Amino acid sequence: MNLLKKCHSKHCEESRIKILRSLRDLRMTKRVNFLESSIRQNPKISYRKMAQILDIADSAVKKHLKTLKNKTLLKRVGGTCGYWEIKES
Fold first, then answer.
1. Cβ 63 vs Cβ 48: under 8 Å
2. In the structure, what pLDDT confidence band is assigned to residue 9 with cuts at 50, 70 and 90?
3. Domains parsed from the chain with CATH numbers
4. For a disulfide at 68, which of 24, 74, 84, 87, Cβ 3.0-4.6 Å?
């Protein structure tokens, strides 16, 4: 990362931004994969429990779950006493 800090040209800044976005996307992918795995193991797991395990905020887990729901890969059945349903693609 030190090499990225030394360069001040527009090209270097664009490259730095791309690298940081890739790292963020990779981290999000790992989290989403973990959430999917957790749900497969325990469909009744709460988002709070997932947040505890990942050591991230509840709101971050909700955001990841919302992404999965928007892609129609995940569905919550039955509200707070319900379970998660993963739709196979």
1. no
2. low
3. 9-86 (1.10.10.10)
4. 74
Contact at 8 Å (CB) between 39 and 86?
Answer: yes
Which residue's entry shows tokens 């963020």? 24
pLDDT of residue 4: 47
Distance from C-alpha of 22 to C-alpha of 26, rounded to nearest angstrom:
6
More confident residue, 25 or 10: 10
**Dihedral over alpha carbons 72, 36, 81, 75 (to 10 degrees):** 10
Positive or negative, the Cα torsion across 25, 30, 34, 40?
A: positive
Tens-digit pLDDT profile for residues 15-65: 766 666 665 555 667 788 888 888 989 999 998 999 999 899 999 999 888
Place of tokens 């991230």: 56
CB atoms within 10 A of CB 21: 10
